[in-house]
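Page 42, continued from yesterday. The earlier attempt failed because a stray header line got pasted into the input along with the sequence. Redoing it now with the clean sequence only.
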Amino acid sequence: MDGRSLRAVGWARSLPLDTQVKTARDWARAHLAELGWTRSAPETVDDVLLVVSELVTNAHVHAHSTAQLVMSWDNDCLHIAVHDTSPVLPGPRNPGVLQPGGRGVLLMDALADHWEARPCPHGKTVVACFRPAAQGDA
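This time it went through. Structure tokens are written below.
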């Protein structure tokens, strides 16, 4: 194996509009447990699950779309990607104190090590990267 080789593991799930966001969180938590993160990086697991909830909710509520959720781990970063059919990229908003929404970009900035939104031919994909606390602090 040369130095450019990469080993990755991943999972994908389609979450139609009638799917509860809890289903996405439970699915993600099970795969994080497979990686051992629920034991070794519980704070990061909480951050990942909050971002999964946010992205799936946005796909359902704002894009009126099925959410295509993909998780992949490349031994450096856990990539959380959610695709929906809306071409509108997320942007910062100034939510009022009593407004229930409008904090997604703030959450992504605060919780993910890195995130980006990419336009696609049939919508967009938002990708967030998470490193376990021990790696992120190194």
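Notes: Residues 93 and 99 are 11 Å apart (CA to CA).
Reminder to self: strip header lines before submitting.
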